[in-house]
């Protein structure tokens, strides 16, 4: 599934109409009917539906929705929030057809406020077809007042394409955006759906197909959702003639006397994710604790100072991938170790947790590396790397991730409710699996371990990273569906669910 900005979506419509010959009226008809069919699933026979319509394509979709529901005998009111002269082009055509079917379109400018408030409160379902993706700048009357009225009610609210007021630049006050219960997104997912500060306004969302050419999406956008189809196409099946060396040899570097748990979780996750051979490199004081829970791993003792890793060369020849950072602490010695490793090793390296802090003032190391580097920051860590506010990262996650990955030649895993995976060339995928149960300490360590194990196996680097995020999230979903809640779920529980997820998706191919 493709993800587009507002600009890309407008260009998509232009290509479909001017180069492929699809009439705009047909696209609007397809969009309105697709959304109307989804709306029907929420309607009871006795419900009153209020459709709020603005100008432009979003309003045009609203007229088609209204005609479809009116023609099937549903009880509805239609309120147009802009003057008639603002309804032009394809939208005007569909308004005319709606009126020819016998439906009445009420004009906002001819209604008193009490009438408007009464219409909203009497309705059981509100359909928001007011603004769509074209809004820029501040929200003006009457939409500002209408958005407040909608958000103050308890009516079921369904948004067409995006909730009205939804910004395409990533920032706007929450009281200027419709809070929808459901959003039926037209043609392609929109970037704002995956911004942590905006995503709640969409409620439950679903993309509806309207017949836009796939070829055009491939030309216009480098952003997609990494869905089940990608997992099934790329997750490698194992040959019956394979052996432990076939599935990669990895080393995890980290841990300390006071923080052995994080590297333990990373190691267990890597083992559950199929790595052939695993070495844990840590200080002597942490080995016994980790070994008690990871009997399949071997260990390499690193020199320590006060229970943390000290500067010391480590021979990484013979390994296929390295993971570094979790539980190392932020001492000058451990920081020097991480920087030296990045300078000297020619292996793919996954940098997580404390390792990200170690390199925050030495990002030039990343650009100089010839082997792949994979960074796994959450928004706070990303802000630290960039020396910007967390808000800057949250408001512009796609652009921030793309700019950083391209500038430093890294694979970036920007973690969150919707994790964004970015390649050094700027190609991006979003992982949508997971739930609130992952909002706990240890989840990032577990994901890092899965990523390392997947990189060691027979799949492309982007697929390995994206499959890891998918599996991690699916494991949490599976557990909450079957035996846990988002309150009690632990990272160690997620590790134990990894086999079920992998077995499920390998067997479905």
From TrEMBL:
Sequence positions that bind K(+): 58, 128, 164
Obligatory cofactor(s): K(+); Mg(2+)
Residue span, YjeF N-terminal domain: 9-218
One matching Pfam family: Carb_kinase
Binding-site positions, (6S)-NADPHX: 57-61, 132-138, 161, 327, 378, 445
Record-annotated YjeF C-terminal domain positions: 227-505
GO biological-process terms attached to the record: metabolite repair; nicotinamide nucleotide metabolic process
Reactions accelerated catalytically: (6R)-NADPHX = (6S)-NADPHX; (6S)-NADHX + ADP = AMP + phosphate + NADH + H(+); (6S)-NADPHX + ADP = AMP + phosphate + NADPH + H(+); (6R)-NADHX = (6S)-NADHX
MF (Gene Ontology): ADP-dependent NAD(P)H-hydrate dehydratase activity; ATP binding; metal ion binding; NAD(P)HX epimerase activity
EC number: 4.2.1.136, 5.1.99.6
Matches recorded under HAMAP family: NADHX_dehydratase, NADHX_epimerase
Family: Belongs to the NnrD/CARKD family.
Name listed for the protein in its UniProt record: Bifunctional NAD(P)H-hydrate repair enzyme
Organism of this sequence: Paraliobacillus ryukyuensis
Gene of this entry: nnrE
């Amino acid at each position: 599934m493709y993800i587009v900005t507002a600009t890309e979506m407008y260009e998509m419509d232009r290509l479909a109409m001017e180069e492929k010959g699809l009439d705009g009226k047909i696209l609007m008809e397809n969009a309105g009917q697709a959304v109307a069919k989804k709306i029907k699933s929420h309607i009871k026979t006795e419900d009153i539906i209020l459709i709020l319509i603005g100008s432009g394509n979003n309003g045009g979709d609203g007229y088609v929705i209204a005609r479809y529901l009116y023609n099937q005998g549903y009880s509805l009111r239609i309120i147009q929030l802009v003057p008639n002269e603002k309804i032009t082009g394809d939208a005007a055509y569909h308004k005319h057809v709606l009126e020819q079917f016998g439906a009445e379109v009420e004009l906002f400018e001819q209604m008193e406020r009490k009438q408007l408030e009464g219409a909203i409160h009497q309705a059981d379902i509100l359909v928001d077809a007011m603004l769509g993706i074209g809004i820029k700048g501040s929200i003006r009357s009457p939409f500002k007042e209408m958005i407040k009225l909608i958000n103050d009610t308890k009516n079921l609210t369904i948004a067409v394409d995006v909730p009205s007021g939804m910004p395409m630049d990533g920032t706007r006050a929450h009281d200027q955006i419709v809070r929808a219960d459901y959003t039926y997104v037209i043609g392609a997912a929109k970037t704002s759906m995956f911004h942590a500060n905006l995503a709640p306004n969409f409620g439950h969302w679903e993309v509806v197909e309207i017949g836009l050419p796939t070829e055009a999406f491939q030309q216009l956008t480098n952003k997609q959702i990494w869905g089940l189809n990608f997992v099934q196409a790329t997750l490698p099946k194992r040959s019956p003639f394979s052996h432990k060396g076939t599935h990669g040899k990895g080393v995890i570097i980290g841990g300390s006397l006071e923080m052995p748990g994080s590297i333990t979780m990373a190691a267990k996750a890597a083992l559950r994710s199929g790595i052939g051979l695993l070495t844990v490199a840590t200080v002597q004081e942490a080995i016994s604790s980790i070994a008690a829970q990871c009997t399949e791993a071997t260990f390499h003792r690193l020199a320590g100072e006060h229970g943390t890793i000290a500067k010391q060369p480590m021979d990484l020849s013979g390994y296929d991938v390295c993971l570094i950072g979790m539980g190392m602490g932020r001492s000058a010695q451990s920081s020097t170790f991480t920087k030296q490793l990045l300078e000297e090793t020619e292996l793919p390296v996954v940098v997580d947790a404390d390792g990200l802090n170690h390199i925050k003032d030495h990002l030039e190391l990343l650009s100089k590396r010839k082997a792949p580097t994979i960074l796994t920051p959450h928004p706070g860590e990303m802000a630290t790397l960039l020396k910007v506010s967390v808000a800057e990262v949250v408001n512009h996650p796609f652009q921030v991730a793309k700019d950083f990955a391209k500038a430093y030649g890294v694979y970036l895993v920007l973690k969150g409710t919707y994790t964004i995976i970015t390649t050094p060339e700027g190609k991006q995928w979003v992982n949508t699996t997971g739930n609130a149960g992952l909002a706990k300490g240890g989840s990032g360590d577990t994901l890092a371990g899965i990523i390392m194990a997947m990189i060691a196996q027979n799949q492309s680097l982007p697929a390995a990273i994206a499959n890891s995020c998918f599996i991690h999230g699916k494991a949490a979903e599976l557990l909450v569906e079957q035996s846990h809640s988002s309150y009690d779920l632990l990272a160690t529980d997620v590790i134990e669910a990894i086999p079920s997820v992998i077995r499920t998706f390998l067997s479905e191919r």
